[in-house]
Design brief:
By secondary structure, this protein is of the alpha/beta class. About 55% of the residues lie in helices and about 10% in strands. The chain contains eight helices and five strands.
Length: about 210
């Protein structure tokens, strides 16, 4: 007889550039593994071979390379592959999935920051994903000047197309992520991303434990 496996939880981390998502995801995964949970770390755009190929079209090159709608379609196309081939199968096997970005990034980047309307981005996500959504979204929030300084200190010139989009672009992004959190309080939590890695990791863990671990 096939044993019913309890479905995993889907957690997404969101925020502007330099918020420290990748580091925090590694810390969070360790804490979950200590609880004997199976964990998969993944990212967008990416997470599948097709998605990683699409990523290369988006994170490199001239800032004005694409129309906002083209970008939204490319990110969403990569997301469809990601959900169907990686995220949903893992959740069904009982694996907890942590994704570095998901649909809220399209809302913030292509919507608020690049000018597509909220309705357009939401319609596109509904068309592509139906009602599929994260169980919990952590929005790492940091003042733009601090965040951009962190990206400069990181000093990698690769995959920096969005980083080059200018200060006001990044201010719109920050405001958009905070709006998303205000509009969907049951799914989203804002995490203060200032301070040391350990301080932020502790805020992240407390939030995830309180929201998802019985
Ligand atoms: P990363 O630097 O966090 O790995 O993400 C790659 C870039 O892609 C980042 O600058 C944000 C951008 N992005 C969008 O513009 N829209 C999206 O839907 C996603 C998932 C990412």
């Amino acid at each position: 007889m096939i044993k019913n496996v309890e479905r995993g939880c889907f957690i997404t981390l969101e925020g502007g550039e330099g918020a420290g998502k990748s580091t925090q995801i590694r810390h969070l995964a360790e804490r979950l593994k200590e609880r004997r949970l199976d964990v998969l770390i993944t990212r967008e755009p990416g997470g599948t071979p097709g998605g990683e190929a699409i990523r290369q079209l988006l994170v490199n090159g001239d800032t004005g390379r694409w129309q906002p709608m083209t970008e939204a379609l490319l990110h969403t196309a990569a997301r469809v592959e990601h959900v169907h081939k990686v995220i949903e199968p893992a959740l069904s096997r009982g694996v907890w999935v942590i994704s570095d970005r998901f649909a809220d990034s399209t809302r913030a980047y292509q919507g608020a920051a690049q000018g597509l309307s909220v309705e357009t981005v939401d319609d596109l996500q509904r068309l592509a994903l139906g009602t599929f959504a994260p169980d919990l979204t952590l929005i790492l929030d940091l003042p733009v000047t601090v965040a951009l300084k962190r990206t400069q200190e990181r000093g990698t010139a690769a995959e920096d197309r969005y980083e080059r989009m200018g200060h006001s672009f990044h201010e719109r992004l920050r405001a958009a992520f905070l709006d998303i959190a205000r509009n969907e309080p049951s799914r989203c939590r804002v995490i203060d991303a200032s301070g040391s890695i350990e301080e932020v990791a502790s805020r992240v863990w407390t939030t995830v434990r309180d929201a998802l671990i019985p």
